[in-house]
Amino acid sequence: MTLHYPLDAVTARSWRSAVRRLIPTPAAHRRADVGRDAARSLLGCDDATLDLLLEAGLPSSGTGDAARFDRFDLINVAIYGGAGRSVPEAAQRYVLRYADGRPDSWTEPRRWTLRWLLRCADQTCEGKWRVRLPTPELFGGSLTDPPGPDPLETTGPSVRITTGAVTAGHRAEVRSPVARALFDEVLTELETGRLRYQWLPADLGADLPGAVANGTLDCVAAALLLAERGRERGLSTRTRRGRMLGMIAVDHAWAEIRDDDGRWLPLDPVFALLGGTGRTGPAAAAFAAFCAGSVPGRFLPWDVAAGAPLAEHSCGAWTETFLASPA
Fold first, then answer.
1. Contact 200/233 with Cβ under 8 angstroms?
2. Do 74 and 25 contact (CB within 8 A), yes or no?
């Protein structure tokens, strides 16, 4: 059951402010395919609130009961609204709770059971799948019972992967002053809103010039930006995809640089931004410093670049569910 919360004066002001802050999804990437019922469910609001958002300027196609919305516009309005009732807000609260933990807990190794279901829209499909498996060994972890070779190639209407995993973190501090200045530069741009952190469609996040022209970055675009600026400044750089594991498994991407001592270390200003939301002083500074070189113990990496797919299916239309539970 989805709870829809009634509108009051304070909440109304928050929602209007959220629409004003929103940088809408550009027309070339917009998919207005979310109806009113699904929009209310995502936002955790009632019909009156949805009407208020429309009146305040929330982009839509159609009017009245026929109104359709872009999913990413809704997600970002939910985050800006701060009502605390949407799935995207739950994901960001999870990062905040992690950052609020003891610093020694940030790198603790953890054991997981991973369940990954990929389903074609056509359940009679016999098309090909190519699925990249997670590679926790890159950060000192392991898959305890790998389901097969990487990539996993098979056919049929679905792929179901169940495996145990150990994730491991470690602390490191970037030595290169160029790399640390680059991390601070991008984090400052995000904190000041010169480039706004928003959830973006996958095709926009992978289009760095388009994302920057829109004034927005998600984790993929931020990773690509760091890698590009790093190369321009003489650094060896690469990007990586992964997930942060917990009650919600959050898709993520980050940049990595080859430090002065030859080690590849992550730079993750987006994680620093999310973990520092609403926090100031030494605690926020300590977490930001952690994100410039260290590996969180809840990160599950793939040997896949930011913006590249973890799975491909010849039929094209498919969905996935990825769950991670403590073992």
1. no
2. no
Domain spans of the chain, in order of start: 9-85, 87-327
Question: Which bin fits 179, alpha (ψ -120 to 50), beta or left (φ > 0)?
Answer: alpha
What is the rounded distance in angstroms from the CA atom of residue 284 to the CA atom of residue 277?
9
pLDDT tens-digit map of 199-240: 999 999 999 999 999 999 999 999 999 999 999 999 999 999
Q: Which of 59, 74, 106, 82 is nearest to 296 (CA)?
A: 106
Could you identify the residue written with the tokens 């809103």? 193
Contact (Cβ atoms closer than 8 angstroms) between residue 16 and residue 56: yes
Place of tokens 């470690």: 170
Burial of 305 per CB tally in 10 Å (0-12, 13-18, 19+): middle
Q: What pLDDT digit, counting tens, does each position of 268-319 carry?
A: 999 999 998 877 788 889 999 999 999 999 999 999 999 999 999 998 799 9
Pairwise CA distance, residues 216 & 224, whole Å: 13
**Beta pairing partners, 155:** 128
Q: Which residue's entry shows tokens 């369940």?
A: 115
pLDDT tens, residue by residue, 132-147? 999 999 999 999 999 9
Q: What is the largest CA-CA distance in the chain?
A: 61
In the block, tokens 């190519």 appear at 130
pTM value > 0.90: yes
Partners of 166 in beta bridges: 111, 142
Cα 66 to chain centroid distance, Å, stands at 30
Q: Which amino acid would we find at residue 75?
A: I
Q: Are 269 and 222 in contact (CB under 8 A)?
A: yes
* Alpha-helix residue ranges (DSSP H) falling in 138-290: 177-192, 202-205, 208-213, 219-232, 269-275, 281-290
